[in-house]
Amino acid sequence: MPKRIDVQRLQQTYLDLLNERQDFEPEWRSISEYILPGRGINYTYKNSRKRRLTTTKVVNPTAKDSLRVLSAMLQGGLTSAARNWFQLEFTEEKPDALNQWLFQAYRTLVKHFASSNLYSSINIFYTEYGGFGTSSMMMLEDPDTIFRFEPMTVGEYAISLNSKNRLNKFFRVLYLTASKMAEKFPKSNLPTAVKEQLDKKTGSTPDGEPYYPVIHCIYPESYIDKPHTSVYFMFEASDQVNTISEPREPLLVGGYYEMPALVGRWDVIGTDTYGLGPGHESLPNVKRLQEMEKSFLQGTHKMIDPPVNVPAKMRGKQDLLPGGVNYYSDPNLTIKTAYDVQLDFAGVSAAIERVENRIEKNFYNDLLLTGQRDPNASPLRTGQVNEQSDERMVQLGPVIQRLQNEVLESMIERGFNMLARAGLMPELPPQLVQQLGSYEIRMISPLAQAQKLLEARSIQSFMGFVGAAAQLNPEALDRLDMDNVIDEYGDISGAPPTIIRSVEDAKVIRDARLQAQQEQQAKQDQLLAESAQNETLEKRATAAEKFSNAGVNLNDQGFSVQ
After folding, report:
1. pLDDT tens for residues 259-293?
2. Helix (H/G/I), strand (E/B), else coil: 157
């Protein structure tokens, strides 16, 4: 029997986490205003139903465009739906039948990832990941696709970490109408105000119903056989609209076998709970760029349509439109510009471009676009540029490693377990169940492989050296263990294990080849021996015939033909 849930304690925990989050909110608000308009919730309990995707503070959208390139690069380079981006392998040597079963389990997992909304949701995840430095999405169960992902925007959730710096508690706010609450929660658990709203269905929103903030919390306490407890409850706050002040019970209590919330942090300072990302780093340049762009536009407007001084007698009679004609009799009554504006277009444009380049570099666009900047480059030069770009991808190593540890591996492990619990994994023969062990997740995406690029190139360089040395002394090849070379390079390049034979299988093939070669050599030796014997017999027969014709008896001379 699950123990009683103390909603007051959960609410206080949530308030404490919100208080801890306050230090990060001002920068999130600035990033939302200057880089990601429409994203982020600045007022936790007041959900505006209309998102403003434009803002007067953004004149030059370089930062937003650069972030879009970064999120596309992360999705294509880490979790592309078009290629394999992870593998499952046993941590110990297993029979081929078990390895084949794990490979089929992997293919089942990949198929269900593709049929879910993962790849559309994770692009939103990467956008907030690069912009706010912290991003989150829920991995929930779905009766049709097994997996259902719900990306969230910053400000919707509050988190805490355990002593190992792993996600411990997760709170998020949902804005639900009374009708949606009736669909999601037992009606008997709904507060009186929500029940009354269901009866009258009137309100200020377009569909006639107000929205209520519902808190969903997940924390590490057992619920029946599940290690994580899940609780939905109404938040009590007398100064907020549409909240409930009556004594409350949970709207819904449940549990999870794994933490369903996936939270990624780009970079972390010390023991901070929330991360910092390229959006934080680029923010000063983004603000500077907006001021420069505004000044440039103002200067351009003043040059095209400068302020003028008009004599008082011409008030209301001046025509400043193109082609306008102004009549006057007094030569002193002329319209003159108030001051001359001399704008250095080239200089100002170059200064703006320098700031734009810095922003693109803040978002790592130079790593992706380096090989495309020179359309006239020769194939050799393009290859050199791409090689340099690949080497610079190593700069993303810490970010990629953190993302893999905090998000991708947890998502894969939860997906594997969810499919197993649903009975969708390949059937495993009973005699192999006892031999099952732990498996490990290996990332083989282009960005993950780029982190091993230098190691792969060192192997290629060494192989080239040994090949050159073998030209001088073939004995140099005796020092090269090709089996280990293939295993190491296959591991670095992320080659599927199904295309690489084990050393034992290779030995069987080599022994069979050696035996076939020996048998072939024996046949050739036998044929040579028979040929030599036939040649000897033929020579002796020819000699016997020759001497016989001459009247000489070879037997009398001690010769015989065998």
Report:
1. 999 999 999 998 899 999 999 999 999 999 999 99
2. strand
